[in-house]
Amino acid sequence: MGALNRFRFIAGIAVGIAAAILLFRGPLEPLAVRAGEAPTASTILAVPVQISRENQGIALIDTRNRTIWVYEFFDRQTGFKQIRLMAARSWEYDRLLTEWNSADPTPQQIRSVLENIHQKQMLEAIQPTPPETEKKNQSQTELIQ
C-alpha cells in the first residue's frame, strides 16, 4: 500500500469517526453562558439538496422556531459561485394540517374504504357459517340447476 493510499485510508476512517460522533451525540451545549442568558442548544440542521441538474443547494431547518430556508448555489456565467435564498417559511402551523393539496385518493377517501372493508369483515365474523353438509347440498343444487 503506497503512502498516498494509506493517507486516504486513514483520512477516510477519521472522517467517518468524526461524522459518527457528530451524528450520535446529543445537542451541543455551550460551554459558557453569558450573564442573564439561558443556555441554548444548537437547533439548526443543514441538509444538502439537489435544486436542478446542475445546481445544488442547502436547506436549513430550525427545529426550535419551526422554520426552513432553502438556498441555491450556482454559477451564472460569471465564473464566481453565488448563493441565493430560494424560499423561507415557518412550518409551525403546517404540522396541524391533516389534508392539503392531496391527490386522489385523499386520506379521507382511503379512510372511508378501509372503514367499509372493516365493516364487511365485522359482518362476516358475526354471521353464522353454514355446516359443511349444508354447503355440499348447496353446491350440488347449483350444479343441478
Short description:
The chain has 145 residues and is an alpha+beta fold.
Give an overview of the whole structure.
The chain is α+β, with helices and mostly antiparallel strands and 145 residues long. Among the domains are: 43-97, no CATH class; 98-129. The protein has three helices and four strands; from the N terminus they run αββββαα. It has helices at residues 3-24, 107-126, 132-144; strands at 44-50, 56-62, 67-75, 81-90. Strands 1-2-3-4 form a four-stranded antiparallel beta sheet, with no helix packed on it. β2 (56-62) and β3 (67-75) form a beta hairpin. It is elongated and about 85 Å long. The chain starts with a helix and ends with a helix. The model is unreliable at 27-36 (pLDDT under 50).
Largest sheet data: 4 strands, antiparallel
Proportion of residues in β-strands: 15-25%
Unreliable stretches, pLDDT < 50, 5 or more residues? Answer: 27-36
The averaged pLDDT comes out at 75
Shape: elongated
Number of helices: 3
The helix fraction, in percent, is 25-40%
User: What's the β-strand tally?
Assistant: 4
Q: Helix and strand string, N-terminal first?
A: HEEEEHH
End-to-end Cα distance, whole Å, is 85 Å
Strand order of the largest sheet: 1-2-3-4
CA-atom Rg in angstroms: 31 Å
Structural class: alpha+beta
